[in-house]
Amino acid sequence: MSEFSHINQFKTMKTSKQLREERASKYEALENLSNTAKAEKRNFTEDEVTQFETLETEIRDLDKNLKAVEAQEKAQAITAARAAGGAVRDFSEKDEKNLEKYSLRKALLSLTDRNSRLDGVELEMHQEAEKEMRQFGKSSSGSSIAVPSYMMGRLAKRDISTSVGNGGYTIEDGVESYVEALRERSLLLSNGAQFLGGMVGNFDVPRENAVYTPGFKTENAAADESNPTYARAAFTPKRLTGFMDVSKQLLVQSAVAIESYLRNQILSGHAEALDRVGFAGASGSDEPVGILNDASVGVVAIGTDGGAITRALILQMIQALEEAKGMTDAAKFIGSPILKKLMKAIALDSGSGEFLWGKDNTIEGVMGEVTTHVPKNLTKGTGTDLTALILGDYSNTMFAQWGGTEITVDPYTQAINGLIRFVPCQYVDFHVIQPGRFQVIKDITTS
Q1: 255-284: average pLDDT
Q2: Helix H or strand E encompassing 197
Q3: Is pLDDT at 303 greater than 60 in this prediction?
């Protein structure tokens, strides 16, 4: 699933809003107890004292839970905003209330229904997004609506913090919520990948490629030259886009579930695409170069045509990363599901019952995760259907985004089928900013 799989956690967990409402009701109960005793000009009964003390304890517990949930919601909102390509900004209370009224469905409908027009907060957001686009030399077309980067982040937060009811979405007007497609989790962002939003032009992130290294000499011997040198990761906007066909009848529905459906398709789809290129983006000019294809990342090769994964290879990866001074406490193995299956069947010895991929999801003491974004169809020599394994600290990767999200509306291509075509577009890039923090194997046989 995508980065937004966090939404599912709130199906059984109370939101901060629900906790605040519950706390208010208990304060009201306390006040009612006091008012009753005051009206009857008496002290509390034993039973009322017990009720009062119980309510006070429950309020203290709610205060603790509320702080924890608010912190979790904020952290998840930031992660979701990053995954959606949105910046997180602070707004006044008045602005907050105004932005909460934003409807992506209403904005899209303004381009497909003669009785609707772009106005209010939807128009303001479109104008803000156009400003962002102009800053890096782009402009929106007359048949599109644009959403600024910070608004996309708010839409992601809205899906998280207000999720209730069937499938995690509010159901109104008798319209049933939809069944979400299964999407891959966005592991890079959840494992610390950096995100820069609001870029306005090309930019470089420099890194030290060599460092000053002094040495010992005799009294009059000449010192050796040892100048630090620098490499750079050059970030340039790359177009991330696709299209989806939506029933016009679905679009005109007023249910909140329809709004959630449209937002989730765009947010989750783009988050998943970013994660995929972060791991395995090709080395062409159209999409970013991912970890597996970065020429500066260290590679442990198995053989001419690939070969089986072994404990010795895992230890070699760890050694190579340690000798490159790239090992950190945050380092983690990330591989494909089929590789996890293979490694869980490789016994460390004949009697311990321990396997290469442990029951606690560790590999030689290092945590391991899987994602389908690590491919299992690689080739090398005559070897086919090969897979890969990555060891590294993923905070040494970086995403960047220019502007917000433009959505072009095409009401004609699928008109005979009663469908409207939407073409979302973002400009993004990705780089490994310190390749020395990674080691990879790219030629593991799967059969």
Answers
A1: 83
A2: strand 194-199
A3: yes
- Each residue's pLDDT tens digit, 9-44: 333 467 777 787 888 888 888 888 888 888 888 888
Q: Which residues pair with 369 in a beta bridge?
A: 334
Which residue shows structure tokens 């000449």? 222
The DSSP element (H or E) to which 431 belongs, if any, is: strand 419-432
Give the start-end residues of each E strand in 154-193.
none
Sign for the pseudo-dihedral over CA of 309, 312, 315, 320: negative
Q: What is the pTM of this model?
A: 0.69
CB 85 within 8 A of CB 428: yes
Stronger pLDDT, 237 or 108, i.e. the higher one = 237
Please name which of 431, 414, 432 lies closest in space to residue 423, comparing C-alpha atoms.
414
Residue 221 gets which letter from DSSP?
Answer: P
C-alpha span between 383 and 372 (Å, rounded) = 20
Residue 446 has pLDDT above 90, yes or no: yes
3 state DSSP class of 363? strand
Query: Which amino acid type is present at position 434?
Result: Q
Residue 388 tokens, joined: 């890969």
CB 108 within 8 A of CB 407: yes
Q: What CA–CA distance (Å, rounded) separates 447 from 416?
A: 48
Q: Where are the beta strands (DSSP E) in 346-445?
A: 362-363, 366-370, 378-380, 383-392, 397-410, 419-432, 438-444
Please state, in angstroms and rounded to a whole number, the distance separating the CA atoms of residues 116 and 65.
43
Taking the C-alpha atoms of residue 231 and residue 219, their distance in angstroms, rounded to an integer, is 35
